[in-house]
Amino acid sequence: MTAAFTVNLDEATLARLEAIAKSRALPRDRVVQEALEAFLDMEEARIARIKEGIAQADRGEFATDAEVERVFSKYRGG
């Protein structure tokens, strides 16, 4: 089953959508559907990771001070 709904886009976004649809020889709605599906996949995975992190914290599973320091050192350059 499919359902139609309206999305309001600014001119710049619409132009980008049209350019991609044209370059891929696809209708705009197919490009939008693919983009929305990719976004939803990413968001669902992000939410699952957050929930798992909360569950780990609830179980008392925290990084040790040494593990945290290793990560910070990596980004401080030493």
Using brief descriptors, characterize the structure shown.
78 residues, mainly alpha, 0% strand, elongated
Portion of residues in helices? Answer: over 70%
Percentage of β-strand residues: under 5%
Shape: elongated
**Number of DSSP-assigned strands:** 0
Overall radius of gyration: 21 Å
User: Poorly predicted ranges (pLDDT <50, ≥5 residues)?
Assistant: none
Q: SSE string, helix = H, strand = E?
A: HHH
Broad structural category:
mainly alpha
Instruction: Look at the structure and give the mean pLDDT.
Output: 95
Overview of this protein structure:
This protein is mostly helical and 78 residues long. It is 73% helix and 0% strand. It contains three helices and no strands. The model has no long low-confidence stretch (mean pLDDT 95).
Give the helices and strands, then pairings.
Layout: H1 11-24, H2 28-58, H3 65-76
Helix pairs in contact: 1-2
Briefly summarize what is shown:
The protein has 78 residues and is mainly α.
